[in-house]
Every structure is written in structure tokens, then in C-alpha cells.
Amino acid sequence: MDATDERVAIVTGASKGLGAAITRRFAAGGIRVVACARSEDKLKEVAKADPDRIFPIPCDVTQSRQVKHLIDETLRRFGRIDILVNNAGLGRFGKVHELSEEDWDQMMAVNLKGAFLACKYAIPHLIRQKGHIVNISSVAGTVTFPGGGGYCASKFGLMALSEVLTQELKPHEVRVSTLCPGSILTEFGDPKPYALKPEQVAETVWQMISAPRGVIYNQIIMRPQVPPEMQK
Ligand SMILES: NC(=O)c1ccc[n+]([C@@H]2O[C@H](COP(=O)([O-])OP(=O)(O)OC[C@H]3O[C@@H](n4cnc5c(N)ncnc54)[C@H](OP(=O)(O)O)[C@@H]3O)[C@@H](O)[C@H]2O)c1
């Protein structure tokens, strides 16, 4: 634990699941974390774990003005942004001809546009700090499966955005990392009993932002180890 860490992070989708676990892990490591999601009450619950280091700011990442406010307010309070974790996301599954247009739009708006907006407003400040962007993609951003038309498209899109960011921010020494987890034990879907624990995935994010000077963990795919009797 490093109680003297001066860095300031923003974590989106921090009200539950993986985002809440990342927020708690960063705070335990001494980082001040601005926790963002739409549910203010849940954010306040998450902040109870470490009120001196976790600061809820409600924000819908699909709304440009709210995301700009999130960045402006973080700067007003702390004067710096070192780390942005684009974690907010949702999955709606169904064959393409059965997937509703609303579900498609929502996945694109949260999983892809939300990350774009947060990057758009945070990058000038991340450049100042030689900071770090971590995008939470998915194994579904690396391989497709039937029923994943909208979700895979949004996460493949996020992979492409991450690659462009890597190239654009290299001259500014801003590191870009993309994490592609398999099934996690959250409310996201219908996780298998062997799914990754959110704390295990959060620990990997911590390792990514703790890489030694001169090292970038550019992409990591992590999967649960499936017990032999449950393998297909
Ligand atoms: N669970 C898995 O198996 C799995 C596997 C691979 C990758 N992932 C990825 O991991 C990330 C986190 O998923 P999770 O499993 O922790 O899901 P989760 O438990 O459902 O949490 C999703 C989070 O996103 C937030 N969110 C949703 N829409 C938002 C919006 N418009 N603006 C701001 N925040 C929003 C939710 O908060 P509010 O509702 O309060 O806004 C919540 O905090 C996602 O990007 C997901 O695609 C998950």
C-alpha cells in the first residue's frame, strides 16, 4: 500500500460490479478516485469504504455535458487527472434480427461513445500528467459469438479506439491499456460459478497502472480457469 500516492483517477461505472472493485482497489493503494455512474446512492455506498479517497460524482457517460462536468469538477477539486478507467458498460444479447434497436443504441452509447466522451474531455489533462487510460473491453472484443452482435461490435469498436489512442498519445507519454476479461461475477449477466471475482480483475487493473517506468501493458486478456468437468 502506498499512502503517499498523489495520483487522481476517474473510474466510470463505479457504482457496482467491476467498477466498484477497481475504485476500492485504487483507494486502498492510496489513489484518490472520482467514482462515476448514474446511481448516486450506490456511489455513496461505495465511497463509505474509504471516504477520504473515494469521491462520488454522478454522471451518465452518454451525455456530453455531464461528462464535461465530471472532468471539470475533478479538476476543480483536485487540480489534476492522472488515470481514466473507462469501465461503464452493459451487455444485451440476442441474434441480430432479434436484438432491439434500443438495446443496440444503448450498448453503442455507453460502451463506445461513453469512452470516447471521457477520453475527449480528459486527454488534455492526462497529457499534462503523462497519465494513463485503461479501457475495460472484454474477451468479446477479441472473438465473436452468436448473440453477441451488438455487444461484440461495441467492444471491437472499443479495441479500435484503444489502438488509435495508443498511437495518438504515444508522443505525449500517455499510456493506454486495454483489459479484456472473460466472465466476471457481477450483476452484468448470468455468470458461471467459476467466473472471475471482480477483485481479481481489479487487481489486474492495479497491476496495469503500476507498471514500472518505461513499461506499458498494452492489452491483457484474462479468463477464468474452467474446471475440467465443466469444459465443453
Ligand atoms: N461481467 C462480465 O462478465 C464482464 C466480462 C467482460 C467485460 N465486462 C465489462 O466490464 C465492465 C463492467 O461490467 P460489470 O460486470 O461490472 O457490470 P455491472 O455490474 O452491470 O456494472 C455496470 C456499471 O456501469 C454503470 N453504467 C451503466 N450505464 C452507465 C451510464 N450511462 N453512465 C455511467 N455509468 C453507467 C453502472 O452504473 P449505473 O447503473 O449506476 O449508471 C454500473 O456501475 C463493462 O464494460 C463490461 O462490458 C464485464
UniProtKB/TrEMBL annotation:
<feature type="domain" description="Ketoreductase">
    <location>
        <begin position="7"/>
        <end position="188"/>
    </location>
</feature>
<dbReference type="InterPro" id="IPR002347">
    <property type="entry name" value="SDR_fam"/>
</dbReference>
<dbReference type="GO" id="GO:0016491">
    <property type="term" value="F:oxidoreductase activity"/>
</dbReference>
<protein>
    <submittedName>
        <fullName>NADP-dependent 3-hydroxy acid dehydrogenase YdfG</fullName>
    </submittedName>
</protein>
<keyword id="KW-0560">Oxidoreductase</keyword>
<dbReference type="GO" id="GO:0016020">
    <property type="term" value="C:membrane"/>
</dbReference>
<dbReference type="InterPro" id="IPR057326">
    <property type="entry name" value="KR_dom"/>
</dbReference>
<dbReference type="InterPro" id="IPR036291">
    <property type="entry name" value="NAD(P)-bd_dom_sf"/>
</dbReference>
<dbReference type="GO" id="GO:0008206">
    <property type="term" value="P:bile acid metabolic process"/>
</dbReference>
<comment type="similarity">
    <text>Belongs to the short-chain dehydrogenases/reductases (SDR) family.</text>
</comment>
<dbReference type="Pfam" id="PF00106">
    <property type="entry name" value="adh_short"/>
</dbReference>
